[in-house]
Amino acid sequence: MSFLTPNKDSKAADEPAVEVTSGARLLPRITIQAFCEHSQTAELVETAVHDRRMSKVALTTHNGGLEGAVESYKSNPTPNLIIVETTLPTDQIPAALDRLAEVCDASTRLIVLGHVNDVLLYRELIRSGVSEYLVLPTSALSIVNAIADLFAAEGAAPIGRTIAFVSAKGGAGSSTVAHNVAWAVSQHLRQDTLILDLDLPFGTVGLNFNQDPPHGIADAVGASAKVDPTMLDRLMTKAANHMNLLTAPAMLDKTYDFAERDFEQVTELAQKTMPVVVMDIPHTWNAWVRHALATVDEVVIVAEPDLANLRNAKNLADTIKALRPTESEPIVVVNKIGVPKRPEIAPAEFAASIECKLLGQIPFDAATFGIAANNGQMIAEVAANNRVNETFRAIARQVTGRAIPEVTQKATALKLPTFLKRKKAS
Ligand SMILES: Nc1ncnc2c1ncn2[C@@H]1O[C@H](COP(=O)(O)OP(=O)(O)OP(=O)(O)O)[C@@H](O)[C@H]1O
Ligand SMILES: [Mg+2]
């Protein structure tokens, strides 16, 4: 391991500050936050972004080291990777990391930059789930290599979480909810997010984000075997910081008849480069829809509180549970609650009848949703103080597996960060 070699003897000082190998695998669009104690360390970490492999990575550096990180994540969402520098004595490091673990999300990875070259400490940290421990002074190249080993190694697990939104009945609002939840993920959790508009003839991703790009999902699916990360990058539209789209053509010049696995390749590729992939699925039932719902990480059923929605939601929920008995169960969002004079099923009763967890309740609000739709904007943009934004943010946190930023919530068994969970297991 690199840290075992005393740095003064190592080639660190002679190593180029940046990697120039053209064949190196690019890192996915992860967010990295580094908490350093010394300005030289911050400068070193900042140098790492000049490495070609880091071109899509969003990296920020902060002061305060380990304790600074603990303070920050009490109230802020955690990124994909945290790098912390610590000058603590060896015996205090594990306890300080436990405090950090309590305020981090389960999926967050951690690299520690330390000043102690101690093999026992290294082993203890790795056993407790820390991804890498590098002894300072080190080189920018060693830091990039450590990050690449985690996120870009051959056979590394795809980073992207796939979340499918489907309506129980056409028009129930699954696209609207999907887009606003994706917005919350990208702006509130600051995770790079890609929406796949799988409703090729009628999809509204372009309209809802006020984008009319010449390329989109149809080109990606049409290219099938030839589609690669560079091509996917070109076909994507950036709607805002962290918010990317593959829009539908929404043209009827041809029919769209897809086979069961036609979207598989694009989805898998998207997962390798994007931390969050939101799939906007049309209200149809055919082989590729069933396959998508069987294979994604999370399924969200959006339903209006009436009888036809209830019947369809029950059928969907039962079918999805049977298709993926060992995966997470579908969850339900009841939308358009309180349409004037409409008799409605109470949301809690609705969820209980279909035996699904009720993830959110969204009121019917023709004015706000209508203005947003007509402007091609998200609800948070046209009505920042509307309470429905908190619902979208709560759904976003839930479907991305991100804990609510409260220490008590984060300490629950399910939410334990990887680097603490492993420790408990050992
Ligand atoms: N809570 C709400 N209050 C008022 N209008 C809403 C609400 N949610 C969605 N809408 C409106 O309902 C319409 C249909 O929404 P949307 O296109 O999201 O449905 P959908 O479930 O995706 O339909 P399909 O399943 O057929 O794709 C849109 O005009 C949208 O603005
Ligand atoms: Mg839709």
Question: What's the arrangement of secondary structure elements?
Answer:
Blueprint lengths: L30 E6 L2 H10 L9 E6 L1 H11 L5 E6 L6 H10 L6 E6 L4 H9 L4 E4 L4 H12 L9 E7 L6 H14 L5 E5 L7 H4 L8 H7 L5 H7 L1 E4 L2 E4 L17 H10 L2 E5 L6 H9 L2 E6 L3 H17 L7 E7 L9 H7 L3 E7 L2 H10 L3 H4 L5 H12 L7 H4 L7 H8 L1
Parallel strand pairs: 1-2, 1-3, 3-4, 4-5, 6-10, 6-11, 7-9, 7-10, 11-12, 12-13
Antiparallel strand pairs: 8-9
Helix pairs in contact: 1-5, 2-3, 6-16
Bound molecules: adenosine-5'-triphosphate (ATP) and magnesium ion.
Adenosine-5'-triphosphate binds next to helix 6, strand 12 and helix 14.
Features:
single chain; 426 residues; alpha/beta; 8-stranded mixed sheet; 5-stranded parallel sheet; 18 helices; 39% helix; disordered N terminus; binds adenosine-5'-triphosphate; binds magnesium ion
Give an account of the 3D structure.
The structure is a single chain. The protein is α/β, with parallel strands linked by helices and 426 residues long. The chain has 18 helices and 13 strands. Mean pLDDT is 89; it is low at 1-22, 405-416 and 422-426. The structure holds adenosine-5'-triphosphate and magnesium ion.
Helix content: 25-40%
**Structural class estimated from helices and strands:** alpha/beta
Average of the residue pLDDT scores: 89
Q: Compounds present? A: adenosine-5'-triphosphate, magnesium ion
Poorly predicted runs are: 1-22, 405-416, 422-426
Number of helical segments with 4 or more residues? 18
